[in-house]
Design a protein that fits this description.
- By secondary structure, the protein is α+β, with helices and mostly antiparallel strands.
- The protein has three helices and five strands, in the order H-E-H-E-E-H-E-E.
- The chain has a five-stranded mixed beta sheet with strand order 1-2-3-5-4.
- A hairpin with a 3-residue loop joins strand 2 (67-74) and strand 3 (78-85).
- Helix 1 (8-22) packs parallel to helix 2 and helix 2 (44-60) runs antiparallel to helix 3 (122-132).
- The protein starts with 7 loop residues before the first helix and ends in a 6-residue tail after the last strand.
- The structure holds adenosine-5'-triphosphate (ATP).
- Adenosine-5'-triphosphate binds at residues 57-58, 60-61, 85, 87-90, 98, 103-105, 109, 118-124, 147.
- Residues 1-157 form the Histidine kinase domain.
- It comes from Brevibacillus parabrevis.
- It is found in: Cell membrane.
- This is Signal transduction histidine-protein kinase ArlS.
Length: 160
Amino acid sequence: EATAVCEPEQVILQTIKKVNVLHPAFIMERDLRELSGVRLAISVEHLEQILLILLDNAVKYSRERKRIAVQATVQKERVCLAIKDAGIGIPAKDLPFVTDRLYRVDKARNRKSGSAEGNGLGLSIAKRLVERYNGALSIESIEQEGTTVNVFLPIRAGVQ
Ligand code: ATP
């Protein structure tokens, strides 16, 4: 994994577009300006997989405020990708556990309609993948206001 490399800007834009095609009612904002010329030490496939999980959650756990933002900030040796929604949020008591395998907050919170029902695997997979590339995943959330998932990934050193 250590040698994987990707140019994140296009990957992120395309993944956002994919999700937006499936969920056209959502307004997807993005600010990826800081990413121009930046390369990350992660494979294209895994970056896309992580983003799909997080964007899918943002969609699933939004209600009437269908606005999602993806923001990239370049820090010293890493990039922070923030995926923000204005959805139902996560109760403080559940927050430490949502990245555990199979942990789900409350079945009743989930949309009843068919395939949107989850298994409690998404976040644990996303976290494991990020950590495989020496990154980190953290979540901030306020109930009834929204959730921000921060994905930290190391910048690929060397010639940009
Ligand atoms: P899946 O395995 O399909 O992703 P899931 O959404 O239930 O199913 P996780 O992605 O692991 O599983 O999420 C765990 C729990 O954390 C969810 O059941 C949900 O309650 C909560 N959660 C995750 N993302 C959000 C979010 N953006 N807003 C509010 N709650 C969230």
